[in-house]
Amino acid sequence: MFIKQGISVGNLLLDLSNYRIIKQTSQKSTREAIIAEQGRKLVKLAEDIIKNGLNPFDLPMVIDAEDGQQNFIVVEGNRRLTAINLMLEPELAKDTPVHKAFVKLNKNYSDAIPKVLDCVIAPNKQAALVWINRKHANGLDGAGTDHWSAMAKARADVEQGIPCPELDVVNFVLTNDALDMDVRHHLEGAKFSITTLERLVTTREMQEAAGFSIRDGKVIAESDKEWLKLVLTDLVSTIATGRRNGEKFTERQIDKDGDRAKFVASFMIDHPKRKKAAKEWSVTGTPKSVSSTSKPAVKPVGTKGTVSTEDQPNLIPKKFKLELPSGKINDIFIELKRLDVTTYRHAVSVLLRVFFELTLEHYIQTHNVSLPTDKDGKPVDRLSVRLDRIVKHIKTSGLLSEKELKPIYMAIADNNSLLAPDTLNAYVHSRWMNPDPLQLKLTWANVQLFIERIWVKTK
């Protein structure tokens, strides 16, 4: 179980095995290594803590130091703890480049330095690593923190009053009722290459040909509105699809000034006879959301529809069906469809393990999948070995494609995966391992196709 609790800074210890640095032998050496690795960034972090406080969405995660002194080891948040410690005791940074800065912070803001931190206490480091990985690893195919793209950053800048003329162009294009739906989805997401659009919008030849200019961060046009909408829609669509008149388009084609001028000349051939507006106007608009041009993203109250994975109460959606042999495996399947995963998460996690193992056993017996043997000639019948052999057999038989098998590969490779053999075992035997209902549901969503194909083809 994860518990939120306020803990005195004096009872918080740095993690000697902090992944930012090599393993250390003492608090002093760990602190010095962090200072050497972070440098002035620690000062910036400290100044931000003084100004804005600690991020309430990202609390330090700790585990019991088990030293009999009520201390806790910070397994996530060592930079923050170091910055706070240095503000409280600047002499800890003596003979380092940041010493003077922390002396100044201590002198000027002593009352604002946090003395007690809201922390999340994890049962052990293994349990904490599930969430630490989701913050620091590279996305984890969506399970981890998804860092802002240039498009997302542009939206955040505009929200804070920072001009972004290229985003104004995107929003203007999104007012086009005739905009291709795939392009619309692309623009409404985060992957559109807005930096490519910026390079073209700020090109003199494009501004002159299309009849607009950028003043004080705003796109001001003298061209006819509907004509310019067609031009900019075509331009944005070219970037979004990576195609232009049937040929591939990439940002490399407009790397240099001469390349951009050449592209603009070719592009504007498709948009002759520029029309002039009666007066200047600002190129912007309120985008028409996808909900107004396609099926509603959210079902109105009182209507029937498929609920999201997060909102469904059970591990297995009730509409999902499998033709299973009568007996234990079928009974477990029915129970997993009926049990509320939040209320009965421990029971569901154990049943999931049993159901998964029985499914693998069934496949091995049906297809005569051979298992490796040990030095005494006995089959090595560990879950990890069975899963590995089955995945290889499924890949060879063409039952699932490489892409469809990716969630299973991840489950095998990631020791913190809910389907990793050690994790499943911990659900049954470890008093510290507490399954998370949402993670259980996401796990099933990731392996549902795998399970379905096994039983459909082997029933």
What does this molecule look like?
- The chain contains 18 helices and ten strands.
- By secondary structure, the protein is α+β, with helices and mostly antiparallel strands.
- It has three domains: 140 residues, no CATH class; 142 residues, no CATH class; 131 residues, no CATH class.
- The protein has a five-stranded mixed beta sheet with strand order 1-5-3-4-2.
- Strand 8 and strand 9 form a beta hairpin.
- Helix 10 runs parallel beside helix 12 and helix 14 packs across helix 15.
- The radius of gyration is 29 Å and the shape is flat.
- 25% of the residues are buried.
Tertiary shape: flat
> How many domains make up the coordinates?
3
Q: Note the total helix count.
A: 18
Q: Could you say which structural class the secondary elements and strand pairing correspond to?
A: alpha+beta
Give the distance, in angstroms, between the N- and C-terminal Cα atoms: 39 Å
| Poorly predicted runs | 289-304
> How much strand content do the residues show?
5-15%
Helix/strand order: EEHHEEHHEHHHHHHEEHEEHEHHHHHH
Strand order, biggest sheet? 1-5-3-4-2
Whole-number mean pLDDT: 83
Radius of gyration: 29 Å
- Biggest sheet: strands, sense, closure? 5 strands, mixed
Number of strands: 10
Helix content bin: 40-55%
Task: List the defining traits of the structure above.
459 residues; flat; alpha+beta; 48% helix
